[in-house]
Write a structure and sequence with these properties.
The complex is a heterodimer of chains A (588) and B (789). Chain A has helices at 13-38, 43-66, 103-120, 129-148, 152-161, 163-173, 178-210, 220-229, 234-251, 260-267, 270-295, 297-323, 328-348, 352-383, 394-397, 399-412, 419-437, 445-474, 498-516, 518-547, 554-566, 583-587, and strands at 76-85, 91-99, 216-217. Chain A is mainly α and 588 residues long. Chain A has one domain. In chain A, strands 1-2-3 form a three-stranded mixed β-sheet. Helix content of chain B is 71%, strand content 5%. Chain B is built from 31 helices and six strands. In chain B, strands 1-2 form a two-stranded antiparallel ribbon.
Chain lengths: 588, 789
């Protein structure tokens, strides 16, 4: 009904399937909103409604994720109707939703972590519970919308929409410094996102004046297409990129814009931390991939060395600061800075390997760090302290918690077979490929190699602080903080109960899945990622050609021959890595 | 079935059986049999079947690739093989490894990360060794870990109230980890590419972590586990860099692919800098060529003709060295070589069967195995580094072993030292000798560890000064361990007959002697350090045996309670003792032995030695070391050094003619230096750990007080500006615009409200500004555009 399948007939079964999927997608957004309206009564009722909503949304999202076709770049489950203005113009803001190979994973992750967010505060939240769950569901709708939106205005509405519920969640249900943390989080993010909005509007306006359609389109896909043909002036591009950077880099958060994050994490209730780390940070990297790379490729390529420096700085800086933390949540928060640094590094290596690794790392970071925050929340519920020094040998009291802690930690430090490995390895391979074989701006050759080596050093530090955390809290002789017996929530059993186990188990299963079958994700994601990075690749290739005369790629042609000779397992996709293996050499 | 199809199937089954056992135990472990005893049966069954399958595979390989010329020596076989390769290609062709892929983890553009196999006789021998030792240890653990079936009282952990800790046994957990380890180790051995090696490299590391920290309640155990993992990560740092350099210059991870580029057939399998590395290093020149060339084809042509010249000028040489050193760096971590050896002695916190399996026979040898596997890639420079690292390690660890009193620590340092021998051997061109020693060492060292476990099981202490005179109480343990001591010391009759260590250690020393002939300076240092190390080896091993089993009981209490271990523990000891004795022998009337078998897999191109045309060092061909003059001399040197070590130990500890305490007093500082393990732990604490912690605290402080301060103050600055604004406003309102209408007055009031610090108003302000900016831009934009067009 909503779908505009341009070449499909009404009675085609595939068309009907897609149309059904579109309706499903729309319902995943509407359902939490409806839930937010309907929720009420005491905490028992409210949490039940919230859980059912989250579960239904998760199942629907799972259907969408699993029916997502491999090897396609077309928007899946598209919904597209006029919203403000008309198709004829001059203004055409559309209610346009859909998933592609990039957003579908983050969409699914959001749906899953929303369930975790509901169950993690199941017992802890008693005061103003209906408001709490109402906000949680609004937040869920906002996050799902961000990833499903295909229109800039719609994206921005959802983007801001995620801000307000989380602001209140931190400000009302947080710990001691919640007001300060909430204000800081809000101001930081809002300041960035306003600039981002200006950047996006600049793109729209540029397109309006240059596309010649006489229609002000806000459709992301359409803008991408137009700008691929007639890119924005380099100078304006840089301004656009900086505006986008302001919002997304704060969201990621990229060093040195990260200072809001540890505070927000520490003060937020467990559900807030889970969603913040698991989903909201990904909006930053998602934004870079979705907007910055295709819309301002020249600027991205120009800024690449600086972005890479900041990413490596984030990796090492986050790791080192994490090493010195005494508070569990702060430690994991800084580990997020480090891990998101890896995501940014992969992304701005600007090759297929790096972006794919980055996507895997995003999803896995959501699972692992989201899970770790949930777990810390569960421990906090029992002992009411987050100080690492207060604990010791908890594995004896909480063997199940120890199991989950260990698996999630191993996943986040990149143990093969778990998700972190696949992402990190691809990111490193991508970065090394860029440093040794790729187009490197003059004067940066050595620096790029140092970045690559620095990122590897980040892996070492990562193992150090995470394993040390596990050791101090879970191993060694038992040391428990005093129970706060006045609190009614201490009726919890010592070890994780069935609810908590069921909360964490899916995360472990999924991280295992990413670890042993990453191609499931990448087969579906890579066409979209290639398409998003295509403009950047073209710019890189052009710059290299300009830098070294007209036949710069002769050398890489040689490499292809050498490599082809050498291995039977060689698969070569020239279209994936235009820069390194240009088309004309391949055909010769 | 055809061998090339049968081998992968057999080995894959052998490899995956432990994984199946692991998965089942994870899911159903606690409910298997009474208190999880079934988990032990399952894991043991799986590994025994794996052993049988490996053995079948090995026999299948032998039947297809018989070892020629019964009665001839290994070296001659190799030589023959080489000649055969030169004259008629068929036999050499037949010895090509069976390689292929099973499953692609992912194909990422040009990168394929696959689960594949690379099977040659080395793989098969390793498989058989690992599964055999692992089977023995699975059986042994039934006895050793028996306590874990019930309620365990941990003698080393006191609770807050001063009582000893009592906890539920974790029998199934132990076998679960063992199965995971076996799977990972076999995966490492069968790997068909470097990426897969790295995957399983990490997995064995994590198994080691889990098993070292098996007694999680002990602080020392979890410390040791962390140390092991993190120190290994430091090694992996180098390894990852090596891998990445290989991939980004050669474009492949597979062994076959890398070897073909490094030692191409048309260069006679000589080690050359591969084209990819030359081109990566000659990027500037290539740019010049492409600038001047008319077409890409022409440019390619020009580059191709210029490549040999670049290669001769040394382009890309350093990339090859970095790749080699990087890979070796990982091996340094895993095989506990200097300077990353510090984790292995601490790893003795794990249960003794684990020390035997992981930290003596298999995992720690994986580094040596990888050096052996990657042998074609190492340049003479890298090999020399390997040799020196091995040499330093073997000497240092041996000296520490003399003063250690903890029975397991003596063995741990002995392991470090023996691994040093293997590395040294590989470094000076003794590929076969090093890997041969790997196999023989696996048997006698796991035997020694299991023996020490049996002693610990009986005495409930690790301290040798508490033991003594145990040979009457536990004869089986005593004499099997004596076999192990003899084997590791290389006992035998020179030129005639000996235990397994005799054969492998002799071939290492012979290779070193042969190396010494060609490189006088390096050769003298390395050879005499190794020979001295051999003497010390015999000394500390017999010291261990005398202190434990000979003489009179030093602690009556311990001696009274000591008893021979149950059959489940003694039987593996006997099997391993037999293996420790015979692993170096040939099958009677044939030339089939471990060494000749491994010799079949010698990397093509390394038969004639490495580095003949460089100034760095010459690694002579291994067959030279079997020539009579070298072989005879070395046999006698080895015999007398070992004998000297044995006699010293006997004088001090056996017949007690001299008192070790006197020596201790005379050489006080030296003794302390050795007792403190050369102060490595203290040194690392001082130069690595403390600085990093100081830096991390400083950075954390900067983060808290610097960056955060900046953010907060910029917010305050905005607030201050708004206050200023308000003041100006008031001035305007009060002083100048008072006359103007109420509108302005109201505006002033509204603006005053802004500075309340109320978030809602800030939001409003920001939103308002956005809209204003939007409108302004929209308006002016069209003007600009109009002007532009």
């Amino acid at each position: 009904m909503f779908i505009c399948g341009p070449f499909l007939l009404d009675n085609d079964p595939y068309y009907r399937f897609l149309s059904l999927m579109g309706e499903l997608l729309l319902s995943t957004l509407l359902l939490p909103m409806a839930g937010a309206v309907m929720v009420g009564g005491d905490y028992r009722r409210a949490r039940r409604v919230a859980l059912i909503t989250a579960l239904v949304v998760a199942v629907m999202a799972a259907v969408l994720v699993f029916s997502f076709p491999a090897g396609s770049t077309a928007p899946f489950a598209a919904v597209d109707v006029a919203w403000l203005g008309t198709d004829a113009g001059p203004i055409d803001v559309r209610l346009s939703l859909g998933l592609d190979g990039l957003s579908v994973w983050l969409f699914g992750l959001t749906a899953l972590l929303s369930v975790v967010a509901v169950t993690v505060g199941w017992e802890a939240v008693r005061q103003q519970a209906s408001l709490y769950y109402r906000l949680l569901m609004l937040l869920q709708a906002g996050m799902l919308g961000v990833f499903a939106a295909r229109d800039i205005i719609l994206f921005y509405v959802f983007f801001e929409f995620t801000l307000i519920p989380l602001f209140f969640l931190i400000g009302i249900w947080g710990s001691e410094q919640r007001r300060y943390a909430a204000n800081k989080f809000f101001l930081f993010t809002l300041a960035g996102s306003v600039l981002t909005f200006l950047g996006l509007l600049a793109v729209v306006l540029w397109d309006y004046h240059h596309s010649g359609t006489g229609r002000m389109t806000f459709s992301i896909a359409e803008l991408t297409e137009h700008l691929a043909v007639g890119p924005i002036d380099p100078g304006v591009q840089m301004a656009v990129f900086l505006a986008l950077f302001a919002g997304f880099a704060i969201k990621v958060p990229l060093f040195p814009l990260h200072t809001w994050l540890p505070l927000a994490h520490v003060e937020a209730p467990a559900a807030g931390s889970v969603l913040l780390a698991g989903v909201l940070l990904k909006i930053g990297t998602y934004g870079f991939l979705r907007f910055a790379l295709p819309l301002a490729p020249e600027a991205v390529v120009t800024a690449m060395p600086w972005l890479l420096s900041l990413s490596v700085a984030a990796i090492l800086y986050g790791g080192l600061v994490a090493l010195a933390q005494k508070d569990m949540k702060r430690l994991i928060a800084y580990s997020s800075v480090s891990h998101m640094g890896f995501c940014m590094l992969g992304l701005f290596a600007l090759n297929a390997l790096g972006t794919q690794g980055s996507l895997l790392q995003m999803v896995n970071h959501g699972l692992a760090t989201g899970g770790l925050f949930a777990l810390v929340g569960m421990i906090y519920e029992r002992y009411h302290t987050r100080q690492i020094g207060d604990y010791g040998g908890l594995a004896r009291r909480m063997p199940r918690a120890a199991f989950f802690m260990l698996v999630l930690t191993l996943s986040s430090i990149g143990l093969p077979g778990l998700g972190g490995f696949a992402g990190e390895l691809l990111i490193l391979v991508g970065m090394f490929d860029r440093a040794w074989a790729g187009a490197v701006p003059a004067g940066w050759q050595m620096a790029y190699r140092v970045f690559a080596v620095g990122a590897v050093a980040g892996v070492v530090v990562g193992a150090w602080y995470m394993l040390w955390l596990v050791q101090r809290v879970f191993f060694g002789p038992l040391r428990e903080p005093e129970h706060r017996s006045t609190d009614e929530t201490t009726s919890l059993p010592t070890d994780l109960n069935a609810r908590e186990t069921a909360t964490l188990a899916p995360l472990v299963v999924l991280t295992l899945w990413i670890g042993v079958w990453p191609s499931f994700f990448l087969d579906r994601a890579s066409p979209t990622l290639d398409r998003l990075t295509e403009p950047v690749q073209r710019v890189l290739e052009r710059r290299q050609t300009e830098a070294s005369g007209c036949h710069a790629h002769a050398r890489v042609g040689m490499q292809v021959e050498v490599a082809n000779m050498s291995t039977q397992a060689w698969t070569w996709h020239p279209e994936n890595e235009n820069c390194r293996y240009p088309q004309e050499v391949s055909t010769s | 079935m055809d061998l090339t199809t049968a081998l992968p199937v057999l080995l894959a089954t052998a490899w995956l059986l432990p994984l199946g056992s692991f998965a089942l135990i994870v899911l159903f472990g606690p409910w298997m049999g009474r208190r999880g005893v079934g988990a032990g049966y399952l894991a043991t069954g799986a590994i025994v079947v794996s052993f049988v399958l490996s053995l079948i595979a090995l026999l299948g390989w032998l039947s297809h690739h018989p070892i020629a010329d019964a009665g001839h020596h290994a070296a001659e076989t190799v030589e023959h093989g080489h000649e055969a390769a030169a004259s008629h290609a068929a036999p050499a062709e037949a010895l090509k490894p069976v390689a292929g892929d099973w499953y692609a983890l992912g194909r990422f553009g040009s990168l394929a990360i696959t689960i594949g196999y690379y099977i040659d006789s080395l793989t098969l021998v390793m498989f058989t060794m690992v599964t055999l030792v692992a089977s023995c240890i699975h059986f042994y653990s039934f006895g050793y870990m028996h306590e874990e079936l019930g309620i365990v009282t941990d003698p080393l952990v006191r609770k807050a109230n001063g009582r000893l800790l009592k906890r539920k046994g974790r029998f199934h957990r132990f076998y679960q980890y063992l199965s995971l380890f076996c799977f990972s180790m076999l995966g490492l051995v069968i790997s068909g590419n470097v990426a897969m090696v790295f995957i399983f490299w990490e997995l064995v590391g994590i198994c080691s972590y889990l098993l070292i920290g098996f007694y999680i309640e002990r602080k020392s155990a979890s410390n040791a586990a962390n140390k092991a993992f993190i120190v290994n990560r430091v090694g992996d740092f180098g390894m990852l860099i090596g891998l990445m350099v290989l991939w980004s210059t050669l474009g492949t991870f597979s062994f076959g692919g890398i070897f073909e580029q490094v030692r191409p057939a048309d260069a006679g399998h000589e080690l050359i800098v591969p084209d990819g590395m030359v081109h990566a290093a000659a990027a500037d020149e290539i740019e010049q060529i492409t600038l001047t060339a008319a077409t890409p084809e022409e440019a390619n042509q020009a580059i191709e003709t210029a490549t040999p010249g670049w290669r001769n000028a040394g382009y890309g040489q350093w990339l090859l060295i970095i790749a080699g050193l990087g890979i070796f760096c990982g091996c340094v971590g895993k095989s506990a070589q200097f300077p990353l050896h510090v984790w292995l002695p601490d790893a003795m916190e794990g249960p003794t069967p684990v020390s035997a399996l992981i930290h003596a026979a298999t995992m720690v040898a994986a580094g040596v195995y990888l050096v052996g596997r990657f042998y074609p890639v190492f340049t003479p420079e890298v090999l020399l580094v390997i040799a020196y690292v091995g040499c330093i390690t073997l000497f240092m660890a041996a000296t520490i072993a003399i003063t250690a009193t903890d029975i397991k620590r003596v063995l741990a340092y002995s392991t470090v030292s023996q691994l040093g021998y293997m590395m040294l051997s590989l470094g000076v061109g003794g590929w076969l000798a090093g890997l041969f020693h790997l196999i023989t060492h696996a048997f006698f060292k796991s035997l020694l560890f299991l023996g020490s476990g049996s002693v610990i099981h009986a005495c409930h202490t690790n301290e040798m000064p508490e033991m003594g005179g145990l040979r009457k109480k536990m004869p089986w343990t005593a004499y099997t361990m004596l076999t192990g001591c003899l084997a590791i010391s290389g006992a035998g009759i020179p030129l005639l007959w000996g235990l397994s260590g005799f054969h492998s250690k002799d071939s290492i020393l012979a290779q070193l002697f042969s190396f010494r002939i060609q490189n006088s300076v390096h050769g003298n240092i390395l050879f005499w350090a190794a020979a001295g190390g051999a003497a010390i080896t015999a000394c500390y091993m017999f010291r261990l045996w005398y202190l434990t089993f000979a003489g009179k009981p030093r602690n009556e209490h311990v001696a009274q309670h000591a008893h021979e271990s149950p059959a489940a523990m003694v039987a593996p000891l006997v099997i391993l003792a037999v293996m420790a004795a015979i692993a170096g022998w040939k099958v009677p009337f044939t030339n089939v032995g471990v060494d000749t078998l491994i010799g079949q897999s010698r990397p093509v191109g390394t038969e004639l030695g490495v580095g003949a045309n460089t100034a760095v060092a010459v690694m002579p061909a291994e067959r030279l070391s079997h020539e009579k003059p070298i072989h005879n001399t070395v046999s006698w040197i080895a015999f007398f050094t070992a004998l000297a070590g044995f006699l010293v130990a006997t004088v001090f500890y056996g017949v007690r003619r001299l008192d070790p305490d006197d020596v201790r007093k005379t050489f006080g500082p030296v003794y302390t230096f050795l007792c403190r393990k050369w102060y490595f732990d203290e040194l690392y604490q001082l130069i690595f750990i403390r600085p990093v912690m100081v830096i991390s605290r400083a950075v954390a402080a900067i983060d808290k007080h610097g960056l955060d301060w900046l953010a907060d103050n910029s917010a305050r600055f905005v607030k201050w500006i708004s206050r200023l604004d308000e003041w100006i406003d008031r001035l305007l309102v009060d002083g100048l615009v008072n006359q103007i209408a109420r509108q302005t007055h109201r505006l002033g009031l509204a603006l005053r409200a802004v500075q309340t610090g109320n978030i809602r108003q800030y939001v409003m302000a920001i939103a308002f500004c956005t809209v204003t900016l939007f409108v302004v831009i929209t308006l002016y934009w069209s003007y600009i555009m109009a002007a532009g067009s």
